[in-house]
Amino acid sequence: MPTLRFHAIKESLASKPIFFEEKERRSDLFGKNVFNEQKMRQYLTKDAFDGVINAIQHGKKIDRKIADQVASSMRDWALSKGVTHYTHWFQPLTGSTAEKHDAFFETIGDGLAIEKFDGGQLVQQEPDASSFPSGGIRNTFEARGYTAWDPSSPAFIYETTLCIPTIFVAYTGEALDYKTPLLRALHAVDNTATAICKYFDKNVKKVTSSLGWEQEYFLIDKMMAASRPDITLTGRTLLGHSSAKGQQLDDHYFGSIPSRALNFMRELENECIVLGIPVKTRHNEVAPNQFELAPIYEEANLAVDHNSLLMDVMGRVASRHNFKVLLHEKPFAGVNGSGKHNNWSLTTDTGVNLLGPGKTPMSNLQFLTFFINTIKGVREYEALLRATIASASNDHRLGANEAPPAIMSIFIGNQLTKVLEELEGVTKGKLSPEEKTELKLNVVGKIPDVLLDNTDRNRTSPFAFTGNKFEFRAVGSTANCGSPMTVLNTIVAKQLKDFKVEVDTLIDEKGLKKDEAIFNVLREYIKSCKDILFEGNGYGEDWEKEAKKRGLSNNKTTPEALKARVSKQSISLFQEMGVMSKVETEARYEIEMESYIKHIQIESRVLGDIARNHIVPTAVRYQNILIENVRGLKEIFEEKYNAVSKEQINLIEEISNHIEAINAKVTKMIDERKKSNSMSDLEKKALNYSFKVKPMFDEIRYHCDKLELLVDDEIWPLTKYREMLFTR
Ligand code: ADP
Ligand code: MG
Question: If you measure from the C-alpha of residue 211 to the centroid of ligand 1, how many angstroms do you get, rounded to a whole number?
């Protein structure tokens, strides 16, 4: 008897929703465990407070004296809340968050002890970095890495530990995490965007990049998840026949949330609110047991931290409700996968959303400037943008038959398409007064109106303009948003930098007025980047053909896509914008390629084990029962035996064929794996894993899933799709 499976089902059916009572108003709870501005005002001296605010707003260095003050106030605040430990909290390139806890507790001789935390401990730590991926940046003999305080993301208390958000860099200064390049990219886009804003408003001093992520996930009963070695080890099912009922009836999306899930969500949201994560929206997603959570958008660096923290919090809270959260992009074949939409925009310190149309023609020209430059940037670096969201797990969405496709394109809707068409027709050079009036009144001036009824939505687009922001939808649900946000902000920064040079040249050398110069450059941009715009069905084969004609990349697998990370163009982009050195860029490529290889390798091993140690023995056992039965029939029916056991014998043969196929294919997969492992060239190895090892997964799975339909349900060892997806 497959005890684990039936035990899990029984437990799950018996488990009742664990009621979570919300005792306080969320507005009162918000940020309770965050050392935010309000707490700093309360705990810090004015000098220290000003120092930290200056660091946050202008990147000014914090001197040691002030750091000491901040540290001791943080400690007092933390101790008052029963906290015993502190940690530098960072995001290494493993994909999860890292922390090493130290107690405040320290002995001072004579049997005495104190709680100590000073500026030195706050500002910098030296964790042993040798076990984090570095892409060859650090040799093991120089394994030192540093974490350094990021004052722009406030410290918070999590699980009785004071967590201080930090960057993580090598001894030699290279970034070893997601945050460091992100901060550099945000700085770059601030600089170049602010310079452009000055064409329109001299008062703008700072531009902030904002991010509002939407996190999709699956909730599965904890015991059921634990009963499946594939979910336990890889985060997804490697086999399993689809359930007779899946998502065909469209009855889950926005449906009423089952109360067990709802209690989980309420507790999760409460934890988030206490941690200062401004969660706002929750709903059922398309697939059974799939859900989404979205916060109010925040400054990008903080939003990235909050998403990383959320992924951790989710796991812990889920466990209390006997759930396992699956963040994997494709935990179940045959039903929708999960993504993490990244809503992105730029906002000035004067409160203007640069991707939101304004009220006057001039503010609309500013909107068009940022809108078109973003499109142009994405056009120039589409392959890099694709690369930045590449991973073994996201390959199941991009490039498979799922939204969105691996081709990067931008959806802007009917009406903005028309606006761009009209702008494309603007006369070269100086404009006549009539033309200017026409432009102001009928093209630029009309934008707010057109957007108001711009209800176009295209769910197949990987990058869509949604009224006052762009929505990058191709990001994977497991991803750290830091990577796509770094790339997007960098390419826009670079594009704006080039734009300024071109506009200034027209003003200084051709004597054009500012708005004429801007119109002229934008017109040329539209011409050269409009082939990234696509309003049609992104799944279709037609689009693949059309995209190829347009020269857009279509890299369906991670090893192919990642190459764009280290193209000459990408390396010089990151260098020029001060975001990553060549060494850092190349290191990231290496880390991501290695991570891809390891993921496929692990999946391959797990699948081989399950097929050989669980599926084949079960099939053999059932086959023996059938054989025994046929023997008995022969005894009873004698010469009539053929007529009554024909189907049975066919079944025995069918099972034999599947068993045979599984064994042969697993052997072939292992051989291919060995071949790949012996390759020293990273790219070749990854490609071999992608094109030789991975295709075996589907072949093996096919036969295992067929057996699932043939073999007696009573002895089938793996918890089935219908059980995992439909038990509440
Ligand atoms: P949907 O895309 O699901 O229709 P919305 O348009 O309401 O939903 O917004 C989705 C997400 O976009 C939310 O998480 C929200 O915080 C975020 N968002 C809204 N405005 C901005 C902005 N200016 N910058 C970044 N994110 C934003
Ligand atoms: Mg969305």
Answer: 8
